[in-house]
């Protein structure tokens, strides 16, 4: 049996960086720039393939350009 996983190219996707540390269950992420991120979009918090990385859903984009709010963890 062959098992295959879809691994799309991610090098051209939008990126930003946290501007300060966050805790595991934080929903407000302070970022350097939130341009081109959208409500209900998906974001990867962490490095691709990282052991503690998470995919979260954006619930709000701050108008000041410096914060992304994501959904609560279940």
Task: Report on this structure.
This protein is mainly β and 74 residues long. The chain contains no helices and four strands. The protein is globular and about 50 Å long.
Q: How much helicity do the residues have?
A: under 10%
Biggest sheet details: 4 strands, antiparallel
Mean of all residue-level pLDDT scores: 90
Intertermini distance: 33 Å
Low-confidence stretches: none
Helix and strand element order: EEEE
How many β-strand stretches? 4
Q: Reading side by side through the largest sheet, how are the strands ordered?
A: 1-4-3-2
Structural classification: mainly beta
Put simply, the count of helices is: 0
Q: What is this structure's SSE topology?
A:
Elements: E1 28-30, E2 42-45, E3 54-61, E4 67-70
Antiparallel strand pairs: 1-4, 2-3, 3-4
